[in-house]
């Protein structure tokens, strides 16, 4: 009698996955929770259901529920001793904890993710772990009210500077092992933003120039637009007003392909 229930649970999970891919997360959640009620003795299937529920709730910004399901997913991954799956669960836990502003928890999950990635000798996972650690710290800085270069009057300055410097270290390590050039463009953007918040406009400018060069080679116009904006912002703080105006005009008039920044 177990087999029909097993198939029904699997079918519900598969239908839920389809709904989530189509953007109907509410229906996907309903189906996934029905699948759990049906029950299954397949821990791999149950872990996948918990993971999908966590992702669906996260997409709907119901972060507390997302966290609880990602925790369940992680516990099962440890029971079945699937280290790759555990690393995925830890990444989800870090991201969700950061969304809840639980930054110490998020850092711990991301750090454990890094340890596991090194244990698996998986450079791709290791790079993602470094990115997550930097991402958590940048979120923490922004949540502290830092949306522009920090000033001497900031009561949290020492802590913010420490977090930004640590984020820079993590982003640099990620860039060193990144294999996907398009992803490297994104990473240079993050690194440039961290330098910008520190008030290190020269290094920030250099990072966004690198992002622009890489994104131009891929024809990634959204990334190019962000690079131009950030280049303009840095030029303003370096009192290079004429150059800043050029970058802002390139954003406004979408002249991305008319200026050669490869030279």
From TrEMBL:
<dbReference type="InterPro" id="IPR011990">
    <property type="entry name" value="TPR-like_helical_dom_sf"/>
</dbReference>
<dbReference type="Pfam" id="PF13176">
    <property type="entry name" value="TPR_7"/>
</dbReference>
<dbReference type="GO" id="GO:0000132">
    <property type="term" value="P:establishment of mitotic spindle orientation"/>
</dbReference>
<keyword id="KW-0677">Repeat</keyword>
<dbReference type="GO" id="GO:0001965">
    <property type="term" value="F:G-protein alpha-subunit binding"/>
</dbReference>
<keyword id="KW-0963">Cytoplasm</keyword>
<dbReference type="InterPro" id="IPR052386">
    <property type="entry name" value="GPSM"/>
</dbReference>
<dbReference type="GO" id="GO:0005938">
    <property type="term" value="C:cell cortex"/>
</dbReference>
<dbReference type="GO" id="GO:0005092">
    <property type="term" value="F:GDP-dissociation inhibitor activity"/>
</dbReference>
<protein>
    <submittedName>
        <fullName>Uncharacterized protein</fullName>
    </submittedName>
</protein>
<dbReference type="InterPro" id="IPR019734">
    <property type="entry name" value="TPR_rpt"/>
</dbReference>
């Amino acid at each position: 009698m177990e087999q029909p229930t097993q198939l029904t649970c699997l079918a519900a999970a598969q239908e839920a996955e389809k709904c989530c891919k189509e953007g109907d997360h509410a229906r996907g959640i309903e189906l996934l929770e029905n699948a759990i009620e049906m029950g299954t003795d397949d821990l791999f299937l149950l872990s996948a259901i918990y993971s999908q529920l966590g992702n669906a709730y996260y997409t709907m910004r119901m972060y507390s529920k997302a966290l609880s399901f990602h925790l369940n997913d992680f516990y099962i991954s440890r029971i079945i001793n699937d280290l790759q799956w555990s690393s995925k669960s830890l990444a989800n836990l870090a991201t969700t904890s950061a969304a809840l502003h639980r930054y110490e928890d998020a850092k711990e999950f991301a750090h454990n993710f890094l340890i596991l990635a090194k244990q698996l000798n998986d450079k791709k996972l290791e790079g993602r772990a470094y990115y997550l650690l930097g991402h958590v710290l940048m979120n923490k800085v922004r949540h502290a009210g830092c949306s522009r270069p920090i000033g001497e009057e900031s009561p949290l300055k020492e802590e913010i500077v420490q977090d930004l410097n640590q984020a820079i270290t993590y982003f640099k390590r990620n860039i060193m092992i990144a294999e996907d050039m398009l992803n490297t463009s994104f990473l240079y953007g993050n690194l440039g933003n961290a330098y910008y918040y520190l008030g290190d406009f020269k290094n920030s400018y250099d990072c966004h120039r690198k992002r622009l060069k890489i994104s131009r080679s891929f024809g990634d116009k959204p990334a190019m637009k962000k690079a131009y904006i950030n280049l303009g912002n840095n030029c303003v703080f370096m009192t290079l007003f004429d150059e800043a105006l050029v970058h802002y005009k390139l954003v406004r008039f979408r002249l991305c392909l008319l200026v050669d920044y490869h030279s």
